[in-house]
Write a structure and sequence with these properties.
54% helix; mainly alpha
């Protein structure tokens, strides 16, 4: 699975299921930017990856497809 498919799946599987607009607002980005990342037409920068992983409480390895385990990170 590609990283952008994982990103979209995370949003769609999280309860309550939020719209792109709602998630984008929580990540301090536009809905358009999130949409482009979810379709693979735009790549996240390192700060985007950090915010996404923190928001979904996952490892960057999971997000970029290096592992199939979400490896929930302890919250600080």
């Amino acid at each position: 699975m590609e990283w952008y498919e994982i990103l979209r799946e995370l949003r769609e599987e999280t309860e309550p299921r939020l719209s792109q607009e709602a998630v984008a607002a929580k990540l301090n980005m536009t809905q358009r930017k999130l949409s482009r990342m979810e379709t693979g037409t735009s790549n996240p920068d390192i700060e985007d990856i950090r915010l996404i992983c923190k928001y979904y409480n996952i490892s960057a390895d999971y997000l970029i497809g290096l592992t199939k385990e979400k490896k929930i990170c302890p919250k600080k």
